[in-house]
Amino acid sequence: MEQNLQSTYNIIIKAMDTFNYMVVDDDRTNNLICQLMIQKFDASAEIKLFLKPEEGLEYIENYVDKPTVLFLDVNMPTMSGWEFLDQFLEFKPEVKEKLHIYILTSAIQSFEKEKETYPFVKKILSKPLKKEYLIEMKNSFENKYNLS
User: Fold this and answer.
1) 147 pLDDT more than 90
2) How far apart are CA 19 and CA 99, in angstroms?
3) Would you tell me how many other CB atoms lie within 10 Å of the CB of residue 67?
4) What are phi and psi of 118, to 5 degrees?
5) Residue 101 CA: distances (Å) to CA of 1, 81, 88, 89, 147
6) Model-level pTM?
7) Worst-scoring range by mean pLDDT, 43-57, 72-86, 113-127, 129-143?
8) What's the CA gap between 53 and 25, in Å, rounded?
9) How many structural domains is the chain composed of?
10) Residue 144: which residues within 8 A CB-CB, separation 6 or more?
11) DSSP conformation letters of the chain
């Protein structure tokens, strides 16, 4: 049993070291800010930026093969973040379980209804992406798996 626990611990540590990041937002400036902030926080991070939500969905469905943090905007012209999440719900469970989704928005409003509809969304954050958000995300992951 102790060996299994150690094995699980090693897998989680490895997963944390290999986190990928995605940003889906139609705003090029915000994507650049996110990219710079993530690189500053995790120099070895692989970061994918998508201006079109449809391309982000295609990438998730076909190429996401390890834990990935997704920062998703809500207000986009071709497809809203909520429409994006509706399509994401149709994906296979093995694809969905790899994503850790955070809404990153400039909209100042309550999202209580959406929180109930999309309980898998980890948190709704206000733009721009801040180092504190990344630290909180990492701490949450560590606490979830008792890594701290």
Assistant:
1) no
2) 10
3) 17
4) -125, 70
5) 32, 11, 11, 12, 21
6) 0.84
7) 129-143
8) 7
9) 1
10) none
11) -HHHHHHHHHHHHHHHHT-EEEEE-S-HHHHHHHHHHHHHH-TT-EEEEESSHHHHHHHHHHH--S-EEEEE-S--SSS-HHHHHHHHTTS-HHHHTTEEEEEEE---S--HHHHHH-TTEEEEEESSP-HHHHHHHHHHHHHHTT--
**Assigned domain for 76 exists:** yes
Question: What is the domain-level CATH number for residue 91?
Answer: 3.40.50.2300
**Which range of residues forms the domain containing residue 138?**
19-144
Q: For residues 11 and 137, give the distance between their C-alpha atoms in angstroms, rounded to a whole number.
A: 18
Question: Does residue 13 belong to any structural domain of this protein?
Answer: no
In angstroms and rounded to an integer, the radius of gyration of the C-alpha atoms of the chain is: 15
What are the structure tokens assigned to 118, written together?
Answer: 């999309």
Partners of 104 in beta bridges: 125
pLDDT digits (tens, 9 = 90+) for 89-136: 999 999 998 899 999 999 877 788 888 899 999 999 999 999 999 988
